[in-house]
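We now fix the convention by which a protein and its fold are recorded. These numbers are not coordinates but entries in a learned vocabulary of local backbone shapes. A record is reproduced here so that you can trace the correspondence yourselves:
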Amino acid sequence: MEETYFLTFREARRLLLSSGGVRLNLDLRKTNRTFEITREGDRFIFPDGTEVEKNVLERIARDEDTVYFVRSGGVYKAAIARNGFYKLVPTIPPTIEINGIRMHRTKGTNPLQDTRSKVNSVRPGEGETVLDTCMGLGYTAIETSKRGAYVMTIEKDPNVIELAKINPWSRELFTGGKVQVIQGNALEVVRRFKDESFDVIIHDPPRFSLAGQLYSSEFYRELFRVLRPGGRLFHYVGNPGKRYRGKDLQRGVMERLRGAGFVGVRRAEKALGVVAKKPTEPP
């Protein structure tokens, strides 16, 4: 398998300051592995022989919002312009940005901390079966699988899956063996699951304006159906509009979850979401 070397403005700036060779991490800090890059005048030579010109690195050094990668002699943006514009953003670990909207919280936190706060809200354990309704870059599914659970994760957008396959922080989605990736519309996929299939559901949908059906009573009834008695649900909601317009989307979510049959419905403040349970006994 050919090696891929990832570059952000950070690595580009270090290379431009070097006078000869320099060792750098080139997998977005996923590991501590480093590589030697040599400099010959205005050319920078990567371990696979790819030569990158100084003017290319200067452009990367000025771009603080995009991940680049070196592969097979070329330098590419980790971005897709197809039915919208998708790109990896060089937070650590990276987040994904779709049409200018970031898919993780990055202010005062990072995507990994954000993920752990969500997963900790329902604490999936060894041997449990977990449904992750909206995969994104897969950090939730990976973190959950590391805790010993088996995860089924759904992603509607093939462009997002393509970026996940590029992103080194998403590698365990496709290599770990405890995560099954399903491409499809979450509502349609969940309808196909048998009753009481999952111990835990982590529901982290796009914002309401982009995916209103994933906040609907109809979808919540499907989630209730496929959850086992006593099973736990975490639903990321965020606080869109609350600060400026007095709206409380979480309250509406909580009311619809109760209407679908969930109990113990309460806010999970740190994770900006809601947690709930399915009763152990029928009402």
Remarks:
- The radius of gyration is 21 Å.
- The chain has a mean pLDDT of 93.
- The chain has two domains: 5-77, 114-277.
